[in-house]
Amino acid sequence: MGAGPFYGPDFGLLEERDPELAGVLLDEVERVRGGIQLIASENFASPAVLAALGSTLSNKYAEGYPGSRYYGGCEVVDRAERLAVRRARELFGADHANVQPHSGSSANLAAYAALLQPGDRMLAMALPHGGHLTHGSRANFSGRWFEVASYGVRRDTELIDYDEVRDLAVRHRPKVIVCGATAYPRLIDYGVFRGIADEVGAWLMADVAHPMGLIAGRAVPSPVPYADVVTFTTHKTLRGPRGGGILCTDELAARVDRAVFPFTQGGPMMHAVAAKAAAFGEAMRPEFAAYARQVIANARALCAALAEAGMRPVAGGTDTHLALIDVRALGVTGAEAERRCAVAGITLNRNAIPYDPEPARVTSGVRVGTPCVTTQGLGSRELEEVGTLVARAVREPEAAADIRDKVVALLAIHQPYLP
Ligand SMILES: Cc1ncc(COP(=O)(O)O)c(C=O)c1O
């Protein structure tokens, strides 16, 4: 099967000149078409986004910001960045937007650089409870360069323990409090975090790498009215190019811009900046709001079907695009569940659950998400079926071939990137 028009008119040239690499690109399209993608942090960017990513804007050096660059010839790419900034500010109601961070991690690095000095104290969610590596893990710069206090979720409810957050904030007096997570299925109360930050005189940073598309579609509350700085990615629920961004108040605008360039990055990737503008433009349309709502409805349907099949949703379910599932009742580890699903044509990832007795490479859970399947056009009824297939794939490894056939049948009319 051909890849369709999505690599642009030059794909034929690549195929002719470098068949080995062209084969990789085609095989990846085939891989995606051949199974269900339930990785919560992935999505299928639109042809318009891919067109911008594959454009000649990739060639242009543009250190600096629109109207104030350190290179000549930036008058055209300036228009792309101005468009991206204007759309991001409008879409999210933010005073200021920086669209240059190369990724979510780069956005967090820059946000910390804007607010902290090495050795300063920060408070963020612990990695084993759903926080991200950049929220103070010792394996990451954030855990080495700052003094980190970590909060978690309660053992009984598996929800953020706001009392613990407040106690830690009062005790440690952090300069920055980070809210936001990578594997937390419930809504985060940004108002409560704002109150705690105000009480201890801390900046509030919201890392909404995951739910930014749901926020764009008004399907979940926005942190923008509460947080001083909001960091995000553009490639997860937002369905744009791989990349990051920062929103902030007017007060912090100059500090954030300097923290991105020249402090933590050099030249921006102008093809990615243009693709971010395309994604913001798409996210402003009513169809995207409908998409965001359906992503959540689908996650709930999937979660309910998994629960029905004996796979326990952490925190009792989901309000977002993702669910965290405790697989111990089925007598497997997260790693084994991931492997069995892969054999059956279902791609998901193992994930630590709160208070997980297993090491990070093994885990007792899996994380599932619905951004990809919703982009493909699957609805709640189909997600119930997906839940049944996931549970069967984990329970009955010997039925993998049969499950894979059912996966292929389910996806037959919902293929991504069909010409
Ligand atoms: C909460 C959170 N922050 C930051 C990141 C980092 O994003 P990236 O992988 O683009 O560096 C992620 C990625 O999963 C995330 O979940």
UniProtKB/TrEMBL annotation:
Keyword Ion transport included in the entry's annotation: no
UniProt keyword annotation of Cytoplasm present: yes
UniProt subcellular location: Cytoplasm
Catalytic reaction list: (6R)-5,10-methylene-5,6,7,8-tetrahydrofolate + glycine + H2O = (6S)-5,6,7,8-tetrahydrofolate + L-serine
Source taxon at top rank: Bacteria
Swiss-Prot/TrEMBL site (Plays an important role in substrate specificity) positions: H235
Keywords for this protein: Amino-acid biosynthesis, Cytoplasm, One-carbon metabolism, Pyridoxal phosphate, Transferase
Binding site for (6S)-5,6,7,8-tetrahydrofolate: L127, G131, H132, L133
Cofactor names: pyridoxal 5'-phosphate
Residues recorded as bearing N6-(pyridoxal phosphate)lysine in the entry: K236
Domain Serine hydroxymethyltransferase-like: 14-389
Enzyme Commission number(s): 2.1.2.1
Pfam families: SHMT
Pathway membership: One-carbon metabolism; tetrahydrofolate interconversion; Amino-acid biosynthesis; glycine biosynthesis; glycine from L-serine: step 1/1
Predominant subcellular localization, coarse grouping: cytoplasm
Family: Belongs to the SHMT family.
Known partners and oligomeric status: Homodimer.
Functional description taken from the UniProt entry: Catalyzes the reversible interconversion of serine and glycine with tetrahydrofolate (THF) serving as the one-carbon carrier. This reaction serves as the major source of one-carbon groups required for the biosynthesis of purines, thymidylate, methionine, and other important biomolecules. Also exhibits THF-independent aldolase activity toward beta-hydroxyamino acids, producing glycine and aldehydes, via a retro-aldol mechanism.
Family annotation (PANTHER family): SERINE HYDROXYMETHYLTRANSFERASE, SERINE HYDROXYMETHYLTRANSFERASE 1
Family annotation (HAMAP family): SHMT (MF_00051)
The name this protein goes by in its record: Serine hydroxymethyltransferase
Protein source organism: Nonomuraea corallina
